[in-house]
Amino acid sequence: MNFIDELKKAKINESFNSNIVFEKKLTAEDINTVLHEISQYGTKSEMMYDDGRLYEFINELGNLIENINLLTLQETEDWFDKVSVSRDMKALQDNYKLMQKTAKELKPLRERIANCYDSIGIIIDRYYEIGDN
User: Fold this and answer.
1) Angle, nearest 10°, between helix axes 54-75 and 79-127?
2) 3-state SS of 51-97?
3) Is 132 among the domain residues?
4) In terms of Cα–Cα distance, which of 82, 81, 94, 62 is closest to 21?
5) How many helices (H) and strands (E) does the chain have?
6) Does any domain span residue 117?
7) Contact between 38 and 64 (Cβ < 8 Å)
8) Are 23 and 70 in contact (CB under 8 A)?
9) What is the pTM of this model?
10) Ranked by mean pLDDT, which of 3-7, 21-25, 29-33 comes out on top?
11) CA-to-CA distance for 116 and 124, rounded, in angstroms?
12) How many structural domains are present in the chain?
C-alpha cells in the first residue's frame, strides 16, 4: 500500500476515531547510518557539557532516538517482543523529553550564574585590579 492509499484510509478511519500510525520503513542505508550513530553514542556525550553545543546535541539525540525507535520496531517480528520493545521505546522517548525540558530550564540558570559571577567581579574590581584573562 502506498502513501496515498494509507492517507485515504486514514481519512476514512479518522471519522471513526481510529488512530493510524504511519511507520516509515528504513532502507538498508538508513539502517547502516543509524547503527553507525549508535556506535558513536559514547563520543557524543562531550557535546552535552559544551554550553554552545548543548541544543545541537539534544537535536541530534532526538533524531537518533526517532531512528532507533523505527529500526527497533521494524526489526521486531514477534508480537510479545513488540510489546516489550514498544514499552522500552516509550521510556526512551520519555527520558528524551525530560532531557529537553531540563536543557530549557538550564539556560536561565546558567544566565543567573553568569550574572552572579559578573556581580562578584564588579565588587572585587572595586577593591582589587582584576586581570584581563
Assistant:
1) 170
2) HHHHHHHHHHHHHHHHHHHHHHHHHCCCHHHHHHHHHHHHHHHHHHH
3) no
4) 82
5) 5, 0
6) yes
7) yes
8) yes
9) 0.64
10) 29-33
11) 12
12) 1
| Domain presence at residue 133 | no
Burial 4-40 (b: 16+ CB within 10 A, else e): eeeeeeeeeeeeeeeeeeeeeebeeeeeeebeebeee
Cell of 64: 537518533
User: What are the backbone angles phi and psi of residue 129, rounded to the nearest 5°?
Assistant: -85, 125
Amino acid at 58: I
Q: Is residue 40 part of a domain?
A: yes
- 85-133 pLDDT, tens per residue? 889 999 999 999 999 999 888 888 888 988 988 998 888 888 878 777 5
pLDDT in tens, 63-88: 999 998 888 888 887 666 778 888 99
Q: Which domain holds residue 21?
A: 3-127
- Alpha carbons within 13 angstroms on the beta-carbon side of residue 1 total 10
DSSP 102-114: HHHHHHHHHHHHH
Residue position matching grid coordinates 510479545: 80
